[in-house]
Amino acid sequence: MKKTGVKYKGKPKNIIRIIDVTNRDGVQTSRIGLAKLEKTMLNIYLNEMGIYQSEFGFPVTKHETNYINANVELARIGVIKPMILSGWVRAITGDVEAATKMTDVEHMNLSISTSEQMLYGKFKGKLNKNDIIKMMTSAVELAKKRKIKTIGVNAEDASRSDMNFLIKFAHEAKAHGAARIRYCDTLGYDDPFSIYKRIRLLVSEVNMPIELHCHNDLGMAVAVSVAGAKAAIDGGVDAYINTTVNGMGERAGNADLVSTILAIKYSSGFKGKYALDERIKLSCAWKIAKFASYAMGIPIPVNQVAVGTNAFAHESGIHADGALKDRRNYELYDYEELGRGEPEIIETGRMITAGEYSGIKGFRNVYDRLEIKFTDEKIATKILDLVRYANVHTQKPLTHGELRFIAKYPEIAKKIFTMSP
Q1: Helix, strand, coil % (nearest 5) of the chain?
Q2: Mind giving me the DSSP string for 241-304?
Q3: Could you tell me where the DSSP H helices lie in 297-376?
Q4: How do residues 367-406 score in pLDDT, each as one tens digit?
Q5: Could you give the CA distance from residue 6 to residue 275 in angstroms, rounded to a whole number?
Q6: Could you give the C-alpha distances from 243 to 23, 55, 186, 214, 371, in angstroms and in order?
Q7: If you ran DSSP here, which 8-state letter would residue 108 be given?
Q8: What are the tens digits of pLDDT across the range 41-64?
Q9: Angle 221-234/257-266 helices, nearest 10 degrees?
Q10: In degrees rounded to 5, what are phi and psi of residue 390?
Q11: Which fold does the domain 15-296 belong to in CATH?
Q12: pLDDT at res. 101
């Protein structure tokens, strides 16, 4: 396999980083959900992949409290590190107050609508633009007082917002201590050309890092995201692209994590010209895409970028011949780089799984195959109980990664499975 590392002349001034929002926006996909253990495993895998930040939940939602605090604990002991875990709340003081009382969250994004459509269609004229700014700045100030380390401000429906108001909104957020502005293309309304123009203007007026949060209603979420990132970098600030694993999200979804990374690494306008966070490991792509598919119960489409069954399949005589002669004839990047190509073991005979009604012998058989031993029967029984709870929790057979996590961090796992109505 050829090395694909991008080389830049000197150290790049500005960088494109990834903030994955699967555990916040992705789980809002209609008719799907993730158990808290599955969300935790996604955070662990995102960290392994070198993702800069995971927006891991809603710290004002009671059923998220123990999960959020347990994941913050995992971050503090170095299991999820250096990736940042951030919570999402509305940009109102009540949410900031509740979030900081209910959880140990240390990073936060505050969201409020900024478009005329939302002012009249969502708020029904009860709020004006000055009210929006006042609510947002008060929430930012309170977050600072509560020692929140990173404060992001989200302009919901930014792509349909008046540009002059958006600039004023961003100025006020920056003046009160926000680290960056999240430009939300909430309805997938922007195209690559419109977002480039708008972000360049926003950066030239405000000069602060920009997050791009784009939806796929018109099938352009990845293209619009990278165009917005290009505008931010061209304007002299860092860019942060919001993604979800397998592009999950409300309606038609969000910008797909793997597709976005590949677009920055290999498209003609980005390769070697724009710096992607050097921590990112594409070799984790296959693993995380498959886990998310299993956890959500949604198969990966055969034509999914990079991780679909047909992503490296050639049937046409001309294409097959060309690919066999030199893979670069018909393949832009290598499947090995994505972590694909390792043999998969599929059990076709007797298979024993660990579930909510497992006995100790079957349970030990499962962990023996993972080469995990227990020092005594008491510890084994304790882990078995947790595995039973986990199976009730996820409602599906546990993955090897989940089983290893429970055995290694039983007390944290217990917190994740626990909810207090």
Answers
A1: 45, 15, 40
A2: EEEBGGG--STT-B-BHHHHHHHHHHSTTTTTTSEE-TT--GGGHHHHHHHHHHHHT-PPPTT-
A3: 317-325, 360-369
A4: 888 889 988 889 999 999 999 999 999 999 999 999 999 9
A5: 8
A6: 11, 10, 13, 8, 35
A7: E
A8: 999 999 999 999 999 999 999 999
A9: 50
A10: -60, -40
A11: TIM Barrel (3.20.20)
A12: 98
Task: Give me the pLDDT at residue 201, please.
Answer: 98
Query: Measured between alpha carbons, how far is 174 from 209 in angstroms, rounded to an integer?
Result: 10
Separation in Å, CA 388 to CA 320, 355, 374, 419: 48, 5, 17, 16
Q: 273: which 2 tokens?
A: 């010209």
Nearest of 234, 196, 268 to residue 16 by alpha carbon: 234
CB 190 within 8 A of CB 182: no
Q: Say if CB 186 and CB 224 are below 8 A apart.
A: no
Q: Are 173 and 137 in contact (CB under 8 A)?
A: yes
C-beta of residue 30 within 8 angstroms of C-beta of residue 298: no
389 closest CA partner among 351, 361, 349, 418 = 418
Q: How far apart are CA 80 and CA 277, in angstroms?
A: 17
**Whole-angstrom distance, CA of residue 214 vs CA of residue 226:** 10
Q: What is the pLDDT of residue 316?
A: 55
Residue 31 confidence (pLDDT): 83
User: pTM above 0.90?
Assistant: yes
Q: Among residues 312, 359, 364, which one has the least CA distance to residue 338?
A: 312
Distance CA 19, CA 149 (A): 16
Q: If you count DSSP H runs as helices and E runs as strands, how many of each does the chain have, helices first?
A: 15, 9
Q: Enter the tokens of residue 167.
A: 């600039």
Give the C-alpha separation, 86 to 22, whole Å: 12
Q: Which two tokens stand for residue 88?
A: 């999402």
Written in H, E and C, the secondary structure of 22-42 is CCCCHHHCCCCCCCHHHHHHH
